[in-house]
Design a protein that fits this description.
alpha/beta
Length: 355
């Protein structure tokens, strides 16, 4: 494989947005501060019709970088509002010489050497494995700002193996192939080859994309060479909506692609069914699966407490896991009953909508 200089790679960073006045500035500023040459970096803020100060903030940042030099910031209108459409609009608006597209969130921020480290890492993977990869994801770590207590519980629940820890929020080290690489750095050529994101999906669109990339001969990887700080849900209401939405759209994905069935996601439903059958049979055997599940939740809370040295996680993490399992399962069942055409909800560009 030939060697390239990082500064010879044109990168477009894509940020879907909708009413993100509280977080968009920090996200964009972390991209402006990249040590990658400004002439090789373009930032696309793809807005779904914000009615707050989001666009004013981005326009202010545009003027700032124009005066002092920095990467080009371009605002693109997304009249369809959803994240897959936003990313496809950005893909079509990329200059012809674009080599990489970085998938970013308005609720996330990165260290100053993030892009340069990841470009070098992607090329190193290709050279060492003698392949061309479609994308490489990175680690997601906790937000470093003032996150409320419930938000901390949610962060630990997501990273726990009983939560979404096997997916994009996994704690991992090294680099290896993955079907769920978060915050991916994509080769534009690979995205063009598969037609970009499927606008059918409101969430799990990255899961679908990764599957199509791998099938088209563009393997997807993840690497711990860098990380993204991401703000996740910070209150109970948002957490409940998160679980239901993911369950619903997960079922839509399974309906279209049976190979993506994950038996672990159906474990709560199976446990509930077994409990019900045991209760109908009589006796007290129905208490066994309940006690087993409660013990697993408490062990998860104990593990997070020992890892973080925060005693509140002993109760908080099991509570968040129980809510996640319950709402996700309800979402799965809701997804069996109806399809997206019956939806009246508006799932906008909130953090973590990619799987």
């Amino acid at each position: 494989m030939p060697e390239y200089s990082v500064r010879e790679a044109k990168v477009v960073t894509t940020i879907p947005s909708l009413n993100e006045e509280r977080s968009i500035e920090r996200s964009v500023r972390s991209l402006i501060a990249q040590d990658l040459s400004a002439s090789w970096h373009i930032i696309h803020v793809v807005d779904g019709g914000s009615t707050d100060r989001t666009l004013d903030i981005v326009k202010g940042l545009q003027h700032e970088v124009e005066k002092r030099g920095g990467p080009t910031i371009r605002i693109i209108n997304n009249y369809e509002r959803f994240s897959p459409q936003a990313r496809n609009l950005s893909l079509r608006a990329c200059p012809e010489d674009t080599e990489f597209i970085f998938e970013m969130s308005s609720h996330a921020w990165v260290p100053p050497d993030h892009l340069s480290r990841r470009i070098k890492d992607l090329r190193d993977i290709e050279a060492s494995e003698d392949i061309r990869v479609g994308s490489v994801g990175c680690r997601i770590i906790d937000a470093d700002d003032d996150v409320p207590l419930i938000g901390r519980w949610i962060e630990q629940a997501l990273a726990n193996p009983l939560g979404a820890g096997g997916g994009q929020f996994a704690r991992f080290s090294g680099r290896h192939p993955s079907m769920v690489p978060p915050f991916s750095l994509y080769r534009k050529e690979a995205l063009d080859a598969v037609g970009g994101w499927d606008p059918f999906y409101r969430t799990t669109q990255d899961s679908d994309l990764n599957l199509r990339l791998n099938r088209a001969g563009w393997p997807t990887w993840r690497s711990d060479v860098s990380y993204v700080h991401q703000v996740k849900r910070r209150n109970i209401g948002a957490w409940i909506k998160f679980g239901h939405r993911y369950g619903f759209w997960r079922m839509q994905h399974v309906k279209k692609e049976r190979s993506r069935i994950n038996p672990a996601e159906f474990a709560p439903l199976l446990g509930l069914t077994i409990t019900g059958l045991l209760a109908v049979m009589g006796g007290s055997f129905w208490l066994i699966p309940i006690a087993t599940y409660a013990s697993a939740l408490l062990l998860a809370g104990l593990g997070e407490t020992m890892r973080t040295k925060n005693p509140t996680h002993l109760i908080g993490v099991p509570m968040m896991l129980f809510l996640l399992h319950t709402t996700f399962t309800i979402g799965l069942l809701d997804g069996v009953r109806r399809g997206p055409r019956n939806l009246t909800e508006t799932n906008h560009h909130k953090t973590g909508e990619g799987e």
